[in-house]
Amino acid sequence: MTADVIVVGLGVMGAATAYSLASRGVRVLGLDRYSPPHAHGSSHGKTRIIREAYFEHPAYVSLVQHAYARWAEVEHESASRLLTQTGGLMIGPPGGAVAGGAELSARTYGLAYERLSPRDVTRRFPALRLAEDMVGIFEPRAGVLFAEQCVAALLSLARRNGAQVVLNQRVLSWSSTADGVLVTTADSEYSADHLVLAVGPWVSSLISDLNVRFEVERTRMFWLRDAAHKEFFHPDRLPIFLIEYAAGRLLYGFPNLGDGIKVAIHHEGDAAGPDDDSADGRAASQLTHLRELLARHLPSANGELLDAATCYYTNTPDLHFVLDFHPAAPRVLIVSPCSGHGFKFAPAIGDIAADLVVNGRSAFDLELFSLKRFGGKAGGVRPTSVN
């Protein structure tokens, strides 16, 4: 089977890329080792946060604004409900990474926000308790994306626009020449002009010759029953929230959307990939630590454990994304080592990936996501256009 572009990995980033390419008339072949949406990688777990006053770096704001617009289009085209607006609270010390960074982004880009004292937060959102040295930065546009529905909608639209999708085939290897690429799976071989690798936690198994180490982290998400005051956790009474409970250490969570209160600790998982069969030795300690934090900041949420799931972060050394051509294989675009905060950006990243493959450039400043920041060679320059 031949195509203009092969997209390997059909989690949210690969699905968005396949959709954006196919909508431009590009012949797309999508490959995945499972049948997405599935629970083996980084694009599952019922819900994901979307927020605009991005504390990680102000450069993300223009990307997420594009993503908001594109998610609305995907909702309309797929006739699916993918996003619900709850508002969002970024909580922590006034000059800390979360609250301070969110306020900086809001000021830099003229975004609507409110700065709330601990008393203000508890009065408006009675489930939450803040230490006296904390503030809350409330942004009204933040909300919840429904993860599996998002992946399903993007793949459905990609197919509707002509993309071919081959599932349950593990990619073993790829090769690239001046004339094209060849992808070998356990069952077949596929050729194309270009290749997009959006393989998340499997990235190191398919790309081993870069001057950067991708570290895969296994983290846990938990759903709890409210211990008291069920009414506190309705989406009208509790926004999505991120709490910097110690310097650089984050607790995040969601209101109860019908399946319990989802909470997790950010970047405190163990080093294990999706093919690692070892026991998750950190799960019990994560839950214990989580309950200690809830007792401090959301005491009424600290009820019965209803469910748990594993999510894999593919972390870069600086926790920013990689979106660049392979330095030694300029027909190969690397997408989505997203360090645990990428889902919300997917339709914007899909459009950028399509721009890079089709036109060789993007209107967005991608310096933050370039491989050259890790030393060694810069990403390759795509040699020919997709016709």
Summarize the structure.
25% of the residues lie in helices and 28% in strands. It is an alpha+beta fold and 387 residues long.
Describe this structure in words.
With 387 residues, the chain is α+β, with helices and mostly antiparallel strands. It folds into 2 domains: 2-43 and 148-208 and 318-374, FAD/NAD(P)-binding domain, CATH 3.50.50; 88-140 and 215-315, 2-Layer Sandwich (D-Amino Acid Oxidase, Chain A, domain 2). Helices cover 25% and strands 28% of the residues. The chain has helices at residues 12-23, 60-78, 97-109, 118-124, 147-160, 203-206, 283-297, 346-359, and strands at 2-8, 28-31, 47-50, 83-85, 88-92, 114-116, 135-139, 143-146, 164-166, 171-176, 181-185, 189-197, 215-224, 240-246, 249-253, 261-266, 270-271, 305-315, 323-326, 329-335. Strands 5, 6, 7, 13, 14, 15, 16, 17 and 18 form a 9-stranded mixed beta sheet that branches. Strands 1, 2, 9, 10, 11, 12, 19 and 20 form an 8-stranded mixed beta sheet that branches. The chain has a 3-stranded antiparallel beta sheet with strand order 3-8-4. β19 and β20 (329-335) form a beta hairpin. α2 (60-78) packs across α5. The radius of gyration is 21 Å and the shape is globular. The protein starts with a strand and ends in a 28-residue tail after the last helix.
